[in-house]
Amino acid sequence: MRKPKITIIGGGTGIPVILNSLRHQNVDITAIVTVADDGGSSGELRTAMQMTPPGDLRNVLVAMSDMPKLYEQVFQYRFNENDGPLSGHPLGNLIIAGIAEMQGSTFNAIQLLRRFFHVTGKIYPASEEALTLHAVFKDGHEVVGESKIADYQGMIDHVFVTNSYNDQTPQASPKVVDAIMESEMIVLGPGSLFTSILPNLVIPEIRQALLETPAEVAYVCNIMTQYGETEHFSDADHVAVLNRHLGQDVIDTVLVNIDPVPQAYMNSNQFDEYLVQVEHDFEALSQQAKRVISANFLRLENGGAFHDGELVVEELMTLIRSRGL
């Protein structure tokens, strides 16, 4: 029997949690990964080599691979702060950069590394070109660059992307649109709303594909609000922003965590960008999406609140089965 096709769209540290659990299911997985990161090691490499940033792709590779733990530790090793030009660079980022130069593109590099690390599923950068994220705030001010958005005090009205190194309209990588159109389910997130999820969706070809796909479109809502992005947001506010950027109500299903994060649990030093737990507005959610799945998706670890990948995937698979797939 043909495996159901599920495509996950996002970036950051959110989607690897879901991908790592989903790869153990009998499904055909595709990950579409943001290429708008311009901070840290990824930012330095994209500037030096005019390449798509490798960091989010690196984390997705690890999440979808059955590589031994030692290989993962080597690939994820980060040079320490007194290592001169190598300071702060994960070894995996340098490997991706080197293979991208050798193979002619980051897209080709990821396809080679997929085979090298026995990755379950397909991984595509959202675009073959590095993208620059622009945030326009409610007061009309525009901030250019993903890493600078949280520094401006204000509410974001909308975001858009441009090619970083030419004036052409941003285009989706090969096979990205086909993956969206051929999927039974599209999963957005979890992850930073304006800087991990939306940079993919505002690429015109991806946006159009999401409007046309027959797939179930599910959104895994964030557990915590995020400094500089979603302060004071309810779960319904998150969905409203997604639908507004897409141009119509595209989200079919919203997965919402209802398990409370214990008061004073969050390590505010280590996770200083996360503020308070996202509030619920089920009435507004029901007006924007066909169904809301509210359950315990919470995993508390090392002073942080994360999604439990196994619990989220369990609900996604139930949803897939309910569609007769």
TrEMBL record:
Its main location: cytoplasm. CDD domains: CofD_YvcK (cd07044). The keyword Nucleotide-binding does not apply. It is found in: Cytoplasm. InterPro entries: CofD, CofD-like_dom_sf, Gluconeogen_factor. Keywords: Cytoplasm. It comes from the Bacteria. Required for morphogenesis under gluconeogenic growth conditions. Belongs to the gluconeogenesis factor family. PANTHER family: GLUCONEOGENESIS FACTOR-RELATED, UNCHARACTERIZED PROTEIN YVCK-RELATED. This is Putative gluconeogenesis factor. It comes from Streptococcus caprae.
